[in-house]
Design goal:
The complex is a heterodimer of chains A (127) and B (578).
Chain A lengths: L3 E5 L3 H13 L3 E5 L2 H10 L4 E5 L7 H11 L4 E6 L4 H10 L3 E4 L4 H16 L5
Parallel strand pairs in A: 1-2, 1-3, 3-4, 4-5
Helix pairs in contact in A: 2-3, 3-4
Chain B lengths: L3 H74 L2 H5 L1 H14 L4 E8 L4 E5 L13 H8 L2 E3 L11 E10 L2 E10 H9 L2 E2 L3 E7 L14 H8 L1 E2 L12 E2 L5 E6 L4 E7 L2 E10 L4 E8 H4 L1 H90 L8 H29 L7 E3 L1 H18 L2 E7 L6 E3 L1 H19 L4 E10 L2 E8 L6 H6 L17 H11 L3 E7 L3 E9 L6
Classes of the chains: A alpha/beta (127), B alpha+beta (578).
Chain lengths: 127, 578
């Protein structure tokens, strides 16, 4: 069982495919299709890395980020933004986002960010 | 666009109001002042004439009384015998003539039968028979008598003063002839202005004096109908003048009649006063125009001033209203352009939002597509699809999907960066990056227009401090203008950056149609555009100019008609940047 990752995106197909591709590479991927669901799942599983879409109906990415970082400061969050402005990005980074990628992001880039996050988490540097 | 008609009616109304408001008090004042001034002035003139004539009336009356009293004294002082002595009489005449030169012509004593029995004078009138003379008969009826002027026996105009005396039961007359010339001079003294003159007429309307001016035709009629109370009319009734159609104004008192009469198309002032207890009338006449020449003169001057004043008012009213309405029209036009601009800006903003929305909407499907393609690539590695002949084709196809996905991503990113909200905050900017970004956006369009773009960017360009979106706007405008100037014929668009003194200089040059002198004078004016209506707002260059000026830089232009145009953008290098 590899590293647990939570994929949060309101586009179900994207989240599913992305999860499958990650699992193909040895990760254990969970998916959530809304902010509320993401907060619930992050409580249940032991995901240490989260790939979070910024723009979602209902609770948006920034709000999820804020709550997750509050409840689980160790969880590393990689943000996928559609057209987030610099101001959003600055705010997100101030909330503790690990990486900020523009959608549609290259899978390789995301994977690279995920691996960096994994390294950070597993290295124990945060403990 | 409001109708031209609206402005012309506005001008007209404004002009009319100004004219009305200015004219009403002016006319009222002029009329009122004119009326009161003229009335009082006329009154004064009439009063003055009245006084003058009255003075002469008294003068003439006293002249006559005086001469009469001399003769009376002569008759009373000396006896019939003494006076009938010609030498004595001659002596008395000489005394009188010495005292009043030229007044007394001769002296004579006439007996009750009308024969002149004693005579002193130049004429040979001794024993002249006056028994049939009218004056003799009249004189015998009363104590003394003044005759009308007549030619008499001597054939020169004269009049006679007689005093009746009694001697031994028979009556005799002492008579003296008064020279007409001497008497006439009394009246001739009354001479005012051009036409004012006086004359004396007897009860029958016959002239008693020579006049320089002829008696106006109506005067005779007027005089013939005037009778003085003292002369037979019942006492207290005053002078009576029968109305004559031509008499315009008329007033009468116990001692005078005056008024204005129309004669031969002239208004003539007349004043009549009784002389010799009403036997004669002293008549004064003067042209009204002459008498009131001063006021007429004043009226002409006032009229001229009034007319020029009115002209000035009309002129000023026209000028002011034209200018004001011109300003209003200009303001309206500017407001309309502003409105249009706001609409255009709103449209642009909504297009920007729309573009951003579309870009974002496209992002997700593209992300999924790329993701799915990636998933398929992953699967290709694992499954025994490797054995398939077409595996390479699959791989190539998926790569292509990925590639096109990346292209979509680039397009949406460009759109999003363009539609991003403007950020007025200043940042440190590498101008070269901004230029590259802009060219990325404008590339497609220039390709379509067959325009080659050349850049010559100085890699060692220092940073400047500016708002990225504003700087973007400047270069987008300049590049778009350059592309517009080149048109569809194709051409070369060159952008170069360099450092010159304290500034970063960016030159944007095109091989377009160039800018003519008169356009160059106004090209930075807001709302000035050479593009067809609806195509350009006329704001592009003025906004560029404003932005660059705000940065402390400068925007200049070199242009040759037919060859092309180069814009030079000077941006000061940020002092804090190393």
């Amino acid at each position: 069982m590899g590293m647990e990752i939570l994929i949060v995106d309101d586009e179900v197909e994207f989240a599913e495919t992305f999860a499958e591709r990650l699992e193909l590479r040895g990760f254990t991927a969970h998916t959530a299709n809304s902010g509320e669901e993401a907060l619930r799942i992050v409580e249940e599983c032991a995901a240490k890395v989260m790939v979070l879409d910024l723009k979602m109906p209902g609770m948006d990415g920034l709000e999820v980020l804020r709550r997750v970082k509050k409840a689980h400061p160790l969880v590393q969050v990689i943000i996928l933004s559609g057209h987030g402005s610099e101001i959003d990005e600055a705010y997100g980074r101030s909330l503790g986002a690990f990486a900020w990628l523009r959608k549609p992001a290259d899978f390789g880039d995301i994977l690279e960010a995920v691996k960096r996050a994994e390294k950070l988490v597993t290295s124990g540097a945060l403990q | 666009m409001k109708q031209k008609h609206y402005y012309s009616s506005l001008t007209r109304n404004m002009t009319l109001i100004i004219i009305l408001v200015s004219f009403t008090p002016l006319i009222l004042l002029a009329a009122l002042m004119g009326y009161y001034f003229e009335t009082s002035y006329r009154g004064k003139v009439m009063e003055h004439l009245h006084e003058l004539v009255e003075k002469h009336q008294q003068h003439i009356n006293s002249f006559l009384d005086e001469k009469l009293s001399y003769i009376k004294v002569l008759a009373d002082s000396y006896t019939y015998e003494e006076l009938t002595d010609e030498a004595f009489l001659q002596n008395k005449l000489v005394i009188l003539q010495n005292a009043y030169s030229g007044v007394f012509v001769d002296l004579g004593v006439v007996n009750s039968t009308g024969v002149q029995i004693s005579y002193a004078g130049n004429l040979k009138l001794l024993n002249a028979d006056y028994s049939n003379a009218e004056w003799f008969r009249e004189a015998m009826k009363r104590d003394y008598y003044l005759t009308d002027v007549s030619l008499g026996l001597r054939r020169t105009p004269h009049f006679i003063i007689c005093v009746k005396k009694k001697h031994d039961g028979t009556e005799w007359l002492l008579r003296a002839t008064i020279d007409f010339v001497a008497f006439n001079s009394l009246v001739e003294e009354i001479h005012i202005g051009e036409t004012g003159s006086a004359l004396i007429v007897n009860g029958a309307g016959e002239l008693q004096t020579a006049t320089r001016t002829e008696l106006m035709s109506n005067m005779a009629g007027l005089l013939s109908r005037t009778s003085w109370a003292a002369n037979g009319a019942a006492p207290g009734t005053g002078p009576v003048v029968s109305s004559i159609a031509e008499v315009k104004t008329f007033s009468s008192g116990s001692n005078a009649v005056s008024g204005i009469v129309r004669s031969q198309n002239r208004n003539i002032i007349f004043i009549l006063m009784p002389l010799k207890s009403g036997d004669w009338t002293l008549a004064y006449q003067q042209d009204q125009d002459d008498a009131f020449s001063e006021i007429n003169h004043a009226r002409v001057i006032a009229m001229v001033i009034f007319i020029f004043g009115c002209l000035a008012i009309v002129l000023v009213a026209l000028l002011i209203s034209h200018r004001v309405v011109g300003q209003i029209e200009k303001a309206d036009l500017e407001k309309e352009m502003m409105n249009e601009q706001v609409i255009v800006a709103g449209k642009l903003a909504s297009i920007g939002e729309l573009a951003a929305g579309i870009a974002h909407e496209i992002t997700n499907p593209v992300a999924i597509m790329v993701e799915e393609a990636g998933w398929m690539e992953d699967l290709l590695d694992e499954e025994d699809l490797q054995k398939s002949q077409n595996v390479d084709e699959f791989r190539r196809s998926l790569k292509q999907i990925n590639l096109q996905g990346v292209r979509c991503k680039e397009i949406t990113h460009k759109l999003l960066s363009f539609a991003r909200k403007t950020d007025p905050l200043h940042h440190k900017i590498q101008v070269n990056d901004t230029i590259s970004e802009i060219l990325g956006i404008c590339e497609e369009r220039s390709k379509f227009e067959n325009i080659r773009i050349q850049t010559e960017l100085d890699e060692g360009l220092p940073l400047i401090s500016a708002s990225p979106s504003e700087l973007q706007q400047v270069f987008i405008n300049l590049v778009n203008n350059a592309i517009d100037a080149i048109g569809t014929g194709g051409g070369l668009l060159e952008i170069s950056s360099r450092v010159e003194g304290d500034s970063v200089v960016v030159d944007v040059s095109d091989t377009g149609h160039g800018i003519s002198k008169d356009v160059m004078a106004r090209m930075f004016d807001p709302f000035f555009t050479t593009k067809p209506v609806g195509k350009g707002t006329g704001l592009g260059l003025s906004i560029c100019y404003g932005i660059i000026k705000k940065l402390g830089g400068n925007l200049t232009v070199d242009s040759t008609v037919g060859l092309g145009t180069t814009f030079h953008v000077y941006i000061p290098i940020d002092a804090q940047t190393p």
